[in-house]
Amino acid sequence: MLKNIIFDFGNVIMNYSPDEILNHYELSPADHDLLRKSIFESKEWSEIDAGKISEKEATEIFMDRVPDRLKGKVKQVMATWPENVDFYEPVFNYMEKLRQDGYKIYGLSNTGMQFANFVKNSEMGNYFDGYVFSAQEKLMKPDRRIYEKLIARYMLKPEESLFIDDLKANTDAAKKLGMQAFTFKIDKLGELQDYVASH
To answer: Which residues, 6+ apart, have CB-to-CB distance to 66 below 8 Å?
Structure first.
């Protein structure tokens, strides 16, 4: 019987789209493309998630990468991008229902600590009973050790836990540890609800 529901963040509880994030800033099309490539498509962006560098260190690298006129924009984007993410209200409504039904809710995400702390310290943090973040652990899904951290920290039984992620490689890794798993897109919310109801 299911007791624990574990949510990834990007494209599960929110729409992770660098273009849509950058649309919140006044940028010409060329500058928009340059910042997307210089920041969100850089190797440093992945290194933030992996806990190899901090957002502060990455910001300095990104600022060195752009013309002087865009340095301030880079700083602004890096300081404020989490608040410009489109969160999925229907998913949070469902999480609220799950909590009312007695399920424990956890977060397991490949993310830097800036975004992790933004979620934790906002009212969204009230939906979760615990978290494991890649930057903090210096481990990235689908490495089995990051799932094992979650299981051990919150004393979860894998067979009583459902892991929801948008990437099949990550849900496959959860299954190998004996967890139930669901590969998610926002248009599959109804399917997810049916799955939970039947398990």
So the answer is: 34, 35, 38, 73, 74
